[in-house]
């Protein structure tokens, strides 16, 4: 059966909108881990109803680098352009239409495009722009200015022989820049996405096998697998001078142990970039189990072409794209 089922789960108490324990709390830990990996194993098939119909929620493949953005960007060799396009893609919450308009037709045509079209996906985490920002204008100005200021980070590796960055090291450097130079309050979400995509497109510049620290959904997913205390907001860490993640409290050590358990588990179907992909799929697992238990709703459907090229098959199941085309013709 292709549907992912959660049999014999239990009721849990809630604190606000979040469960205080795992719905699988009565299961042995190994069974919970195997349920997560069943989810991962079926992820690219897209035959489970939620994975099949709610593509805007589960909007990557099991191996995230199998993405048309990476394919496009691997052809780009100029570090200024690499930074500019990746920042635009990340700060628009990965809006495919904005990226391809900019890539193919340039800034002026993109600005004209924004008059009648959305500039960013509206179904993902809110990016905290400085108060009063005209976001459509900033999308064209801010990343361009940042690319001029930040290309030296990539030049240091490619031209001057610096060691490559870890993903969290690179994300933190970007975060500091956008806070200090462009007035952002909380830009780590798009900065981590930028680090992810640079790493996946240019592994000689940023290490895609390095540790990546997750967000709220990631911790909610880990909580469903491991139970106990939800570690969200409790982990204290630093990135040392070598770019390595250093835990600074017991919660950080617990997080690293949980990640290592999943990354190194023999049932793990992920073959590369394991920390990155486990971080991503635990978040998706949380969404799947929460929706399945009626405690989370799917987000509003958005056009497939806001996320991917219309010819890109998110699934490895042959009829997936045909079904998406049929659905979009109904709108």
**Total helix count?**
12
Helix content: 40-55%
Order of helices and strands: EEHHHHHHEHHEHEEHHH
Radius of gyration: 20 Å
Could you give the distance between the termini? Answer: 31 Å
Strand order, largest beta sheet: 1-2
Principal-axis shape equals globular
* Total DSSP E strands: 6
DSSP strand (E) fraction? Answer: under 5%
Low-confidence region ranges: none
Largest sheet: 2 strands, antiparallel
Mean pLDDT, nearest integer? Answer: 94
How many domain modules?
2
Structural class: mainly alpha
SSE blueprint:
Layout lengths: L13 E2 L2 E2 L9 H13 L7 H5 L14 H6 L5 H13 L4 H18 L21 H24 L6 E2 H16 L5 H14 L4 E2 L8 H11 L10 E3 L5 E3 L2 H14 L10 H19 L27 H10 L2
Parallel strand pairs: 3-4
Antiparallel strand pairs: 1-2, 5-6
Helix pairs in contact: 4-6, 4-8, 7-8, 9-11, 10-11
How would you describe this structure to a colleague?
The structure is a single chain. The chain is mostly helical and 331 residues long. The chain has 2 domains: 14-65 and 210-329, no CATH class; 68-207, no CATH class. Helix content is 49%, strand content 4%. The chain is built from 12 helices and 6 strands. Strands 1-2 form a two-stranded antiparallel sheet. The protein has a two-stranded parallel ribbon with strand order 3-4. It is globular and about 55 Å long. The chain starts with 13 loop residues before the first strand and ends with a helix. The model has no long low-confidence stretch (mean pLDDT 94).
